[in-house]
Design goal:
heterodimer, A: 349 residues, mainly alpha, Arc Repressor Mutant, subunit A, two-stranded antiparallel sheet, 2 strands, disordered C terminus, B: 488 residues, alpha/beta, Rossmann fold, 3 domains, seven-stranded parallel sheet, six-stranded parallel sheet
Chain lengths: 349, 488
């Protein structure tokens, strides 16, 4: 079981004295601001990013108050400090939870699996009428698509059951137990986290975090074994890499609608440099983002040649080696894309 | 039996799986299918919704269902969809602007459209409806239209104009708590020629009982004692979320072998859905809840309804106790009362209506054209009250001070009405005559005799009432077994 006190203690220990008390809150909620995204890399808190998207401010402050009253931390004006009493047991938590990688997909995947489970169990017991435990229409649509894809529902029930059983065998017994207790079938409605917390005599927060960790482990197994888990794989959404700031995302949407940078500047009333920063951020985060409309193939090749020659990422050095008409903006875009290809080469090698 | 009769029963079987109608349903449906504007009362738990759901499946064209409670609406839509009826939707304030405009443009896909009365004030919605073929107009909880009612909703008064605008579709006004005075008021406010179909409100299979105590500790002892005797599906109503959770904790400790859960409006939507479904599937024995629970709950075998606190009026009490015994078997209502308990409903009433300073600040903000701050500060019910009456008053009055005076006097009038309602309930608690007779006399001339025990004043002794439905929970504890059971 993951205990929330351990997670909070670990986070505060890492952020000690450097940030305000609310930065851990923003990390847990997965706030998409450049400050928070920077913080998680700077302090090595990627696992915790966005693992508690529905965390309420009141709840967080209740935790913090109890930390203060136990003399584990001291709140300063702009910051806070850990006392020597702060302690935590995180063990191999890093292998078990990966918020930064999965925060965009985890809960949707879990919801989809829950709904598939409920749907197939009802089909199996020949019960046509049931109230779906997942209200999200998009997820309901995905599940309907699955039903259409596999015409033979008996076979689908069998396949799904086997996939689920097999993947759950690979995580901890407690984690599998907590997971399945939340599932709804034809004759059994799943338990809420609060009910599980009462059954196991732990906090609801602990159940939430342990469930998130179980989800992350399952997704990881499923996505590395696509052939073994075709059904479970269907619901891992492709939006995961979009860890861009909200402001950049707005710009991205305008770009997708065919607007030029100039037009976006006017609509959003932002400086040209800000919009360019957004485009670089998008190119850095989204592997599939096409930079062709900003950099011609010809210029791109020239820039890459210089990058490989000078073996540096320092913009000024690269710029000096190139024709004057090639901008910093173009160099940054090519660098972003070049980094992606490097990473994928490494992954394949 | 004529042709028509056979057909209606077939349709009922086909769409809802029932082989016969319950009392009143058929008469109401026939009246509506005959294109008669109809005002109908049926007791709670008698299947009011089938009275318009079935006609909407038979008649071509669209049925509008006006419902005052969003949660009720959402539940109804879910239930219908689960039954395989997909052409139903709900328009309410929970939808985002995008969702709403998408829904409006696809409105022709639906046959039944639930909406809140406020939605019908939006021009975009009305204009869209005008293009469509609206043939049935259902007003659920129609007593909301009357100022004499306990739940007066100003927006209901505007329904008359909406009906006119839509070319007068067949109107069906339904209520489970309308006294003759309110029935007349409904007809008057709608100014339609309506056929009245009035069925008795009393529930012959429910036994009424009150248990008094001197303090909260004694009250809790009573509840524990009661639950020791009664092992059957039970609902316990509370006025506050905090107490709901507290008693849940106590009962869980006291009855480890039984499944207890709690439910209130402060919980996440997902958890609310799970708890509600668990209760319907007999996975829970006892549910501690606020009035937020039970909207659209179709559970037949609830045997015991306990009120830990006083509801705010008799109508709510009748509605909440009416969730018991829908299968017609004996069920018991127990209201727990400690002297002074009425302060809670008084506080609730106080919080529902704007006070003097809120009225003044509201008017001031309106005059200055800065509504936003004050609007976010006031609760939905207060704002609804202020918006409606101010709008009405400004049509005849120009003086700000006059409007203010009038608003305050309206407010006092509503408050007095609500306070009287609580006083009536306390009187009922303390009265020594037959509880059943007192409870239903305002609604009907003759209160029917009880089918089982009547009430604690007619010889029923709650301490001697025992029931053991022997609920056995066979929970598979290992995840492999749970999955096995789901798919084997």
């Amino acid at each position: 079981m993951i205990h929330y006190q351990d997670v909070i203690s670990h986070m505060l220990y890492k952020l000690n004295g450097e940030r305000t008390i609310s930065s851990a809150f923003h990390i847990l909620r997965g706030k998409r601001s450049s400050q928070t995204l920077q913080d998680i890399h700077l302090f090595g808190l990627q696992p915790y990013y966005g693992i508690y998207p529905k965390l309420r401010s009141a709840t967080y402050h209740r935790w913090i108050d109890s930390f203060v009253s136990q003399n584990l931390i001291i709140i300063r004006d702009e910051s806070f400090e850990c006392t020597g009493k702060i302690h935590f047991q995180t063990g191999n938590l890093r292998d078990k939870i990966n918020g930064f990688k999965y925060h965009r997909v985890d809960l949707d995947w879990f919801s989809a699996i829950q709904l598939v489970c409920q749907t197939l169990s009802n089909i199996h017991k020949q019960n046509k009428h049931f109230i779906p435990v997942i209200d999200d229409v998009e997820i309901q649509y995905q599940v309907k698509q699955l039903m259409k894809k596999y015409r033979h529902h008996d076979q689908l029930v069998h396949l799904f059951h086997n996939e689920l059983k097999s993947v759950l065998e690979q995580i901890g017994e407690l984690e599998a137990e907590l997971m399945v207790q939340q599932f709804t079938g034809a004759n059994r409605i799943g338990l809420s986290k609060k009910q599980l917390a009462d059954d196991y005599q732990v906090y609801e927060e602990d159940i939430h975090l342990t469930t998130m960790s179980a989800i992350h482990q399952l997704i990881q197994i499923v996505e590395y074994n696509t052939e073994e888990y075709p059904i479970l794989n269907l619901f891992i959404s492709q939006k995961r890499h979009q860890s861009i700031t909200d402001s950049a995302e707005k710009t991205y949407r305008f770009l997708n609608n065919g607007l030029t940078l100039k037009e976006i500047e006017n609509i959003r009333q932002l400086r040209p440099s800000t919009i360019r920063d957004h485009v670089v951020e998008i190119a850095t985060q989204l592997e599939h983002f096409d930079i062709d409309s900003f950099v011609s193939k010809d210029i791109e090749e020239k820039i890459i040649r210089v990058i490989e020659k000078v073996e540096t990422r320092r913009l000024k050095v690269i710029k000096e080696q190139l024709d004057d008409h090639i901008s910093y903006f173009q160099i940054r875009l090519v660098l972003a894309k070049y980094n992606h290809s490097k990473v994928s080469v490494m992954a394949n090698g | 039996m004529d042709k028509e009769t056979i057909k209606l029963e077939d349709q009922l079987k086909k769409h809802f799986g029932f082989s016969s109608f319950r009392e009143g349903q058929k008469e109401i449906i026939e009246s509506v299918l005959d294109n008669q504007h109809t005002l109908a009362t049926l007791p709670t738990g008698s299947g009011k919704s089938i009275c318009y759901q079935l006609p909407s499946l038979i008649v071509e064209g669209i049925t509008i269902v006006v419902s005052p409670l969003i949660s009720l609406m959402v539940d109804q839509v879910k239930l219908l969809r689960a039954q395989g009826y997909k052409r139903v939707t709900a328009l309410n304030s929970l939808l985002s602007y995008e969702q709403k405009s998408k829904l409006l443009s696809h409105l022709n896909r639906y046959r039944m459209i639930y909406c809140s009365p406020e939605m019908l004030q939006q021009e975009s919605f009305i204009n869209r409806l005008k293009q469509l073929n609206v043939l049935q107009f259902v007003i659920d909880e129609a007593h909301c239209i009357s100022q004499w009612g306990h739940e007066f909703r100003p927006d209901y008064l505007r329904l008359k104009d909406v009906i006119e605008t839509l070319g007068e579709p067949t109107v069906l006004a339904l209520s489970a708590t309308a006294t003759p005075k309110i029935q007349d008021d409904i007809v008057k406010q709608l100014s339609l020629n309506m056929r009245k179909i009035i069925y008795p409100m009393d529930r012959v299979n429910i036994t009424y009982s009150v248990l008094k105590s001197d303090n909260q500790i004694e009250k809790q002892e009573q509840i524990i004692h009661l639950l020791e005797q009664a092992k059957a599906p039970t609902m316990i109503y509370f006025s506050s979320r905090v107490m709901t959770e507290q008693l849940y904790g106590l009962l869980q400790q006291q009855f480890p072998e039984r499944k207890v859960a709690y439910y209130h409006g402060g919980m996440e939507q997902q958890d609310r859905l799970l708890i509600q479904q668990q209760f319907m599937h007999d996975q829970l024995d006892i549910i501690c809840c606020t009035s937020a629970f039970g909207m659209g709950v179709n559970k037949d075998n609830i045997r015991l309804i306990i009120h830990y606190h006083l509801p705010t009026n008799l109508e709510s009490f009748i509605q909440e106790t009416g969730r018991a015994g829908r299968d017609g078997k004996q069920s018991v209502s127990v209201l727990l009362y400690t002297k002074g308990d009425e302060t809670i409903p008084f506080q609730i009433i106080e919080s529902e209506l704007p006070d003097d300073s809120e009225i003044e600040r509201y008017l001031h903000a309106k005059q200055e054209g800065i509504n936003i701050d004050i609007e976010s500060e006031l609760s939905e019910t207060k704002l609804r009250f202020l918006n409606y009456h101010t709008h009405k008053l400004t049509q005849t009055l120009t003086q700000q001070s006059e409007i203010e005076e009038e608003l305050k006097s309206f407010r006092d009038h509503r408050k007095q009405l609500k306070i009287n309602s609580v006083i009536n309930l306390v009187r009922w608690v303390n009265a020594e005559d037959c509880r059943r007779a007192l409870l239903f006399q305002p609604y009907q001339e003759h209160v029917r005799p009880a089918l089982f025990d009547c009430c604690d004043h007619c010889g029923f002794n709650i301490h001697k009432w025992e029931i053991d439905l022997n609920i056995h929970h066979d929970y598979k504890q290992n995840w492999r077994n749970i999955l096995e059971e789901m798919f084997q």
